[in-house]
Amino acid sequence: MTFSYPLFDMPFIGIYMIVLSFLFGAVFASFITCTAWRVVRGEDWMLGHSHCDTCGHELSTADLFPIISYIALKGKCRYCGSKVPPRDLIFEILLGLLFAGTLALHGSVDAVVVACLALEMLLLGLSLADWDSGVIPDGFLAAILVVWIMTVGFVPDMQRYAIEGVISSACVGLVMAIGTAVIGKVKKIKAGYGPAKLAMCLMLFLGFKGSVIAVGTGIVLGIVFALVCKSKKKKISLAPAISFAFIAAFLLRDVLAKFAV
Ligand SMILES: [Zn+2]
Fold first, then answer.
1. 1: pLDDT confidence band, cut at 50, 70 and 90?
2. How many A from CA of 61 to the centre of ligand 1?
3. If exposure means fewest CB atoms within 10 Å of the residue's CB, which of 12, 15, 141, 225 is most exposed?
4. C-alpha 49 – ligand 1 centre gap (Å)
C-alpha cells in the first residue's frame, strides 16, 4: 500500500502545506530540545512540567508557544525577568525552515517525506544531547528504527527501498564499527559505538545513491566537527556531523532527481 499526494497541483494547497510544515517544525523543535535537555540531565522526559532554569518557576501554556512566546516576552522569563538564552528560539526557526524546505523540495506528501520530517526532529534532539553530554542516547536510535518500521510499508517501490536500505546500513555500520574498534585500540581510548549505530539506523532510509552522498559529506563534516570539538577541548561528538550529512543526502537526492534528464 502506498500513498503520494503531489503538492503543487493546486498551488494554494502547496503553499498552505509549506506554511503549516514550518509551524509544525517550530512546535516539534520546542518539544525535542526540551526532551534532549531532560534526557541529558536524567530527568523524566515524558512527565514533569517545563520550568525556568533561573528561578525554577513552572511555565504556563502561554509561555510555551514556540517563537511567539520568546518574541512577546522579549527573551526574558515572565516571572523573574532573567534572560532566556536564544538557543531554543534559533532551533525552532531552523527546524521550521528545514521542514518547509524538505516538503517544498520533495514536492509531494508521501511516506518518504513523513519519515524524513520525523528524522529531522529526532536528529536535532540527539545532536543536542550528544553535543551536551558526549553520548548518543539509545532511546533516540530506537525511535529512528520505529519511524522506519512504521513507514517502510507505505513507500513507493518498497522492495527496492528496503533492500538498498538494509545493504547500505550493513556496509556503512560494519566499516564504522571496525573503524571505531581500530581507533580505540591505536589511541588506547574507549571509543563509543554511538556514531556507528546512528549511521546504521539512518542508512536504512537512503538508497545506494543517497548513501554515497551521505558517506562523502559525513567524512568531511566529521573531520570538521572533530577539529571544532578538539579546539573547544570537549569530548568529540559526531552526531551533528552525521545528522547534517544525512539531511544533505536526502535533500540533494531530491534535487538531483528533479534535474536529472
Ligand atoms: Zn525565571
1. low
2. 15
3. 12
4. 14
- The DSSP annotation for 118-135 comes to HHHHHHHHHHHHHHHHS-
User: What separation in Å is there between the alpha carbon of 54 and the centre of ligand 1?
Assistant: 5
- Rounded-to-integer distance, Cα 120 and Cα 122, Å: 6
CA of residue 81 to ligand 1 center, whole Å: 6
The domain limits of the chain are: 1-156, 157-261
Which of 109, 126, 103 is closest to 202 using CA atoms?
A: 126
Compute the distance from residue 96 Cα to the ligand 1 centre, in Å: 26
What is the distance in A from the centroid of ligand 1 to the CA of 55? 4
**Who contacts 55 (Cβ-Cβ below 8 Å, separation ≥6)?**
77, 79, 80, 82
Expressed in angstroms and rounded, the spacing between residue 75 Cα and the centre of ligand 1 is 11
What's the gap in Å between 76 CA and the centre of ligand 1? 8
For 233-248, what is each residue's pLDDT tens digit? 888 889 999 999 999 9
Q: Is the pTM of this model over 0.85?
A: yes
Q: How far apart are CA 41 and CA 32, in angstroms?
A: 14
Give me ligand 1 centre to Cα 32, in Å. 21
